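Go through this chain for my students:
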Amino acid sequence: MQNVIDSLTKGVAEAFPGRELHYNRAVMSKIIKGRFITYDFAFAPGYANILHNAHGLIRLLIRDKEPALLKDINETDPVEVEAILYDHRFKNAGIKFRKINAKNVHEAVKKIVSWFEKNATAMQDTKFTD
């Protein structure tokens, strides 16, 4: 699963050439009944380098499509990806995220990277000054 996590962060970084990404991190998270991948993305660190204060923060949750079981993700299982757009400026810029359904985590990574590539210009044009 580490190769999936690595390819996600690498693919998103390639969508923003020459731009330093302060948060571009995917981790395997565990809850009582299973595992999921959490991906955090932001252009700039927040106050005191606290993640939830970061400018342009987006969090993607990649989990198995069997919500009742909340089982561990296998690389061949169908998954769904939901997003939390923490920063209202992305919403105001018209950047929308619709839930992604994929046949497996590799396909989900391709769809996520494609979404970032499609919205890269609008994301970079978003002003984060207060």
